[in-house]
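> agent: user asked for a holo structure of the chain below bound to adenosine-5'-diphosphate. Plan: (1) validate sequence alphabet, (2) canonicalize SMILES, (3) run complex prediction with ligand conditioning, (4) return tokens. Step 1... ok. Step 2... ok. Step 3 dispatched.
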Amino acid sequence: MQTGKLIVFAGPSGVGKGTLLRSLLDKHPDLYLSISATTRPPRPGEINGHHYYFVSRDRFETMVAEGQLLEWAEFAGNYYGTPRQPVERAIAEGKFVVLEIELEGARQVRKTFPEGMQIFILPPSEEELERRIRARGQDSEAAIARRLQRAKAEIAAADEFDLKIINDDFDRAIAALEAALFAVVPAGRVQ
Ligand SMILES: Nc1nc2c(ncn2[C@@H]2O[C@H](COP(=O)(O)OP(=O)(O)O)[C@@H](O)[C@H]2O)c(=O)[nH]1
Ligand SMILES: Nc1ncnc2c1ncn2[C@@H]1O[C@H](COP(=O)(O)OP(=O)(O)O)[C@@H](O)[C@H]1O
């Protein structure tokens, strides 16, 4: 049986993880992006079951109690977690599975999937990170403050990761990601 790979994609809120991933998935539709469950309310334009599974705190706590999550963490006042079954199935099918998660979740996955690849996306500077979060224009002042505070702690842990990529020039960051992902197995063998 072919075995796929698990790739963890982390980095502070607003660094551009989602934008980089969307671009990578457009170019490489064979990558499988895990859809997380969260108690955060949807942002305008976010679709349940596509961007996240938006669930109540009660539902999330049941998922935790029943062992349905591969990892989970609290971030800026909300729970986030990775549904276990779809990830395990996709890996068993030989796919490259990408988890876009925060630091605590990445640490949990490092224990359960030590063979996974862990990538950390860095901003060119803290000022630019704040500019990007504000430019996105989707978070309240309080949510922005919580994200910036958390960003400092996350950036301080960047050395724990297998690979650090600075998302300054977007195309260069994409090229660095492609080199990291597809150097492992030639693109033709990814399903
Ligand atoms: N541990 C964990 N973190 C997650 C999961 N899904 C998303 N996150 C992280 O939660 C943080 C907040 O995500 P979100 O509210 O979408 O805000 P954004 O990153 O600023 O767009 C980000 O660092 C995400 O990478 C998950 O399933 N598990
Ligand atoms: N290389 C880049 N240069 C300038 N702006 C960027 C770059 N990458 C992403 N952005 C912008 O930064 C903002 C935050 O990106 P997003 O993907 O939502 O971050 P994250 O998913 O890490 O929270 C978006 O407005 C996005 O267009």
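> agent: step 4 complete. Summary for user: The chain has a mean pLDDT of 92. The chain has one domain: 5-183.
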